[in-house]
Amino acid sequence: SSEPVTCFAPSNIALCKYWGKREKELNLPVNSSLSISLGHLGTQTTLSLAEVDQVWLNGERLTDDTPFARKVIAFIDLFRRDQAVTLKVDTRNNIPTAAGLASSASGFAALSLAINQFFALDLSDDVLSAFARMGSGSASRSLFQGFVEWEMGQQEDGMDSFARPLVARWDTLRIGLVKVATGEKKVDSRSGMTRTLETASLYQAWPAQAARDISRLHSAISDKDFQLLGETAEHNALSMHATMIASWPPLVYWQPDSLAAMQKVWQLREQGIPIYFTMDAGPNLKLLFEAEYEADVLTAFGEIEVVSPFSAVP
Ligand code: DP6
């Protein structure tokens, strides 16, 4: 087809994190992971024919040597038989920049959906998720809404390493995005994982913890046990950060304000408010709570963005 196509994919937050690759080229993970998607927040990507390959991000054309532009073109090359077919990739994130969320997951998921449609590949969800994974591991989970589990798989070609949505929904679940200001340039997930696997002896304990946490999350979701969900997610995130901190040179993604926000969460819990947090490879917190406590959370944290993950799930 030569008609432009536009596809959307949501951002996602892992409750059990993907941390560590057993194979770096294909993004095959050491452990399975489980996430929740962010509904309407994510990336919209339009593909159209153009004179030369070009990548646009939020209305601006990127120079060809930008890391993101190179990754996007390399990804398209995986699908494009005919190198003479050159494309414009127009990527727009509606994730509020103030929320400090990574966009590579929703970006590569939206791009995979758009490629599938543009080249009329008619790929199944499983295969599309495995392809999105090659762009960025967490993108395998961003093809779907709601709770999503990425099975690590066993095969060397990675074709059994893809994500699937869980049927369960949880309409009262809320996610609060706490942006912690940072000027420092962070180490991206790929290099962070490599450093952790190569230098942190604590990492040896991670795969077993992740397996245990996935099964706890399944119980929490099927029993609608919010305390178990929150405790598991927070413990999982802090355990991942422990492996990062135990790397050399140390990988400390926290800022002083990250710790201040954690302490606020712990204080609220002491006051009887069920609220937990998770964090990725950056200084920002994602709060987990239920709708009835939204007012308390806004009082404590100010005007943060609050997402209802299941409002986008029909
Ligand atoms: C800490 O998916 O960004 O956010 O596969 O190298 O692109 P690459 O890494 P990426 O890593 C995400 C790591 C994480 C945890 C998670 O989202 O599961």
From TrEMBL:
<keyword id="KW-0444">Lipid biosynthesis</keyword>
<keyword id="KW-0443">Lipid metabolism</keyword>
<dbReference type="GO" id="GO:0005829">
    <property type="term" value="C:cytosol"/>
</dbReference>
<keyword id="KW-0547">Nucleotide-binding</keyword>
<dbReference type="InterPro" id="IPR036554">
    <property type="entry name" value="GHMP_kinase_C_sf"/>
</dbReference>
<comment type="similarity">
    <text>Belongs to the diphosphomevalonate decarboxylase family.</text>
</comment>
<dbReference type="GO" id="GO:0019287">
    <property type="term" value="P:isopentenyl diphosphate biosynthetic process, mevalonate pathway"/>
</dbReference>
<dbReference type="Pfam" id="PF18376">
    <property type="entry name" value="MDD_C"/>
</dbReference>
<dbReference type="InterPro" id="IPR053859">
    <property type="entry name" value="MVD-like_N"/>
</dbReference>
<dbReference type="GO" id="GO:0005524">
    <property type="term" value="F:ATP binding"/>
</dbReference>
<dbReference type="InterPro" id="IPR029765">
    <property type="entry name" value="Mev_diP_decarb"/>
</dbReference>
<dbReference type="InterPro" id="IPR020568">
    <property type="entry name" value="Ribosomal_Su5_D2-typ_SF"/>
</dbReference>
<keyword id="KW-0456">Lyase</keyword>
<dbReference type="GO" id="GO:0004163">
    <property type="term" value="F:diphosphomevalonate decarboxylase activity"/>
</dbReference>
<keyword id="KW-0067">ATP-binding</keyword>
<feature type="domain" description="Diphosphomevalonate decarboxylase-like N-terminal">
    <location>
        <begin position="9"/>
        <end position="163"/>
    </location>
</feature>
<dbReference type="InterPro" id="IPR014721">
    <property type="entry name" value="Ribsml_uS5_D2-typ_fold_subgr"/>
</dbReference>
<dbReference type="InterPro" id="IPR005935">
    <property type="entry name" value="Mev_decarb"/>
</dbReference>
<dbReference type="Pfam" id="PF22700">
    <property type="entry name" value="MVD-like_N"/>
</dbReference>
<dbReference type="InterPro" id="IPR041431">
    <property type="entry name" value="Mvd1_C"/>
</dbReference>
<protein>
    <recommendedName>
        <fullName>diphosphomevalonate decarboxylase</fullName>
        <ecNumber>4.1.1.33</ecNumber>
    </recommendedName>
</protein>
<feature type="domain" description="Mvd1 C-terminal">
    <location>
        <begin position="180"/>
        <end position="301"/>
    </location>
</feature>
